[in-house]
Amino acid sequence: xxxxxxxxxxxxxxxxxxxxxxxxxxxxxxxxxxxxxxxxxxxxxxxxxxxxxxxxxxxxxxxxxxxxxxxxxxxxxxxxxxxxx
Length: 85
Description:
By secondary structure, the protein is an all-alpha fold. The chain contains 4 helices and no strands.
């Protein structure tokens, strides 16, 4: 699939980038697009499943602390379901 760049100034920038980076035009454009895509904010409502899995794996790998306490005790709930003693 071909991409047609009609703006001469844009074509010149692409050629300059490729020349200075020592890359082909295709590689220069691809890397520039990839770098820009990484910086774009995530769209609301979409879940990046790879990042979510990486975060989950990170937290799962952390050492457990206070294993003798129940989840409610760790959070700080007492027997009446409120915080404190």
